[in-house]
Amino acid sequence: MSQAANQWPTAPHQCAGVILRDDQNCVLTVRQAYGLRLWGVPGGVIDPGETPHTAAVREALEEIGVHVELTGIIGTYLLTGGGWPDIQAYMFTANITAGTPRVVNEREIAALEWRSPADLPSPLLPDVAAALEDLRMGHAGAVRGVTRQLDLSRAPL
């Protein structure tokens, strides 16, 4: 048997994000300041040795300057296609416990907006779109694949 046949497939990259809602049920959206400048929610790559939970909390503080408490998991989404490696995304609901949302690092986040679920910005990251759909449908703990419809092959990782 060849060495290649003995190797397990590599694990996908992993990221975590938080969906924050205000009293009017508006969702805090952020626009990336890099690549295709897609809209999403606070979140990012899970660092080595970090859990999805701690990554989500850390990313909220680093990107929008707020402390959050996770209140639930909407789901996990395996993103495939679009010219990028596969990514396993963990999407959580959370409440702000301290701070006011603001752009902390302009190299990562270009803008933030509270948006009605009926009037979300575009283009929206596919894991965020899937999580918001699951949230709207009342699903919790979803586990599903999401095929990217955008060609991200020229966007930086």
Automatic annotation (TrEMBL):
<protein>
    <submittedName>
        <fullName>NUDIX hydrolase</fullName>
    </submittedName>
</protein>
<dbReference type="InterPro" id="IPR000086">
    <property type="entry name" value="NUDIX_hydrolase_dom"/>
</dbReference>
<dbReference type="InterPro" id="IPR015797">
    <property type="entry name" value="NUDIX_hydrolase-like_dom_sf"/>
</dbReference>
<keyword id="KW-0378">Hydrolase</keyword>
<dbReference type="GO" id="GO:0016787">
    <property type="term" value="F:hydrolase activity"/>
</dbReference>
<comment type="similarity">
    <text>Belongs to the Nudix hydrolase family.</text>
</comment>
<dbReference type="Pfam" id="PF00293">
    <property type="entry name" value="NUDIX"/>
</dbReference>
<feature type="domain" description="Nudix hydrolase">
    <location>
        <begin position="11"/>
        <end position="137"/>
    </location>
</feature>
<dbReference type="InterPro" id="IPR020084">
    <property type="entry name" value="NUDIX_hydrolase_CS"/>
</dbReference>
<dbReference type="InterPro" id="IPR020476">
    <property type="entry name" value="Nudix_hydrolase"/>
</dbReference>
